[in-house]
């Protein structure tokens, strides 16, 4: 892949283009000034929602991005087939869907076997995961407030997660293990490389076209502004690291560059492949406190009127698991690990191996409370966690059929589809079956 011929540059398939992480990664990839990134072919992106296809094409151009409509991650055959036609899969959508992640690795293995490639240029999967994978369960299980894992001890982290998952299956962890532990990745002669970027709390405004809000600070800020007080689950010693979304996205770009420019020499893979991108650390109680401080400093709180008076002083209310789960789509496990868990992750691998140097640290983190308050007050923070944890089934406008005609696609050996059913650049005959409104179309491509 280090050849200068543009045809030898890897094809990228990216998931999560409509999300916070994936949207920002896509934006950074498509706007990177690096010659090796600019030389890449257009990036294929799996999306739900016809009008989002339009917006992606309008913004980035048909020559840079190739949107592919799909229904959801359960379409594993389609996902495997698409992965088999790409050299790098950036799985930057929900990290909570093991079956689709595994399908991506299977597809890349097919790619590896089908292509007449030089052996150093194996396909790669850049997976996205989260630090709740290594959290304790301080309320329903045992608390480990002093535990810290270090990505330089990659196999220790991997083995720890494996043991945890045998004790209790957790979808995001299962997904990461399915990717890194897949025989194609961790067998005696790996056919696919795979690294998992295991993010902590991500903050800052995203750069994608759709979902631009993080989760933890926006959700707490909205709670604080609505109720007039913050909440705490557990004893408040829960701990998490943080990273700015732009720095995080830069790490993905660095990974792609390493694949293109250095034959992935610096990327850890398989059981050593968990990377912690971290720029600072915070106690959970300080997130609620930061939101209150910002709201009181700006005069947003305390609030009277409408017969409702919010607390005159900054107040953090102790809540139980059920109440905390009202912020996590009713998922009590995510509520516990998210709001009470101890998950200190020390990350040095990205810095030392890839030269990653996050530019947003403590100052940017502090500023984020001010920025998020502004967004919440302006009504711009309606973000919920359901899409992040893959529990948002389908966009309402696609289900009802009102407005623009829903586009529901079923593929049989199909290569690629855009809104106008234009095929991508891949060769080979494919059959495409499409339903637009009530009309069905079959095309030989
Ligand atoms: N946000 C954080 O603070 C954070 C922290 C640590 C780790 N992470 C990791 O990063 C991942 C992505 O987070 P995010 O904040 O970018 O989430 P997000 O903004 O909610 O984006 C999720 C993306 O995945 C897609 N998606 C979700 N469920 C799907 C399904 N069933 N079928 C097809 N597409 C689906 C969404 O598509 P639609 O737009 O069509 O719904 C969207 O593009 C998380 O799952 C987690 O593993 C996030």
The molecules bound to the chains, other than polymers, are:
NADP nicotinamide-adenine-dinucleotide phosphate
* Multimeric state: single chain
The computed structural class is alpha/beta
Largest sheet report = 7 strands, parallel
Number of helices: 16
Count of DSSP E strands? 17
Descriptive report:
This is NAD-dependent epimerase/dehydratase domain-containing protein. InterPro entries: NAD(P)-bd_dom_sf, NAD(P)-dependent_oxidoreduct. It comes from Apiospora hydei. 37% of the residues lie in helices and 18% in strands. The chain has 445 residues and is α/β, with parallel strands linked by helices. The chain has 2 domains: 6-283 and 335-393, Rossmann fold (3-Layer(aba) Sandwich), CATH 3.40.50; 397-444, no CATH class. The strands form 4 sheets. A 7-stranded parallel β-sheet has the order 3-2-1-4-5-7-11, sandwiched between helices. Strands 6, 8, 10, 12 and 14 form a 5-stranded mixed β-sheet that branches. The longest helix is centred in the middle third of the chain and has 18 residues, at 245-262. It is globular and about 70 Å long. Bound molecules: NADP nicotinamide-adenine-dinucleotide phosphate (NAP). Residues 16, 18-22, 48, 72-73, 93-96, 128-130, 172, 199, 201-202, 211, 214-216, 387-388, 390, 392 line the site of NADP nicotinamide-adenine-dinucleotide phosphate.
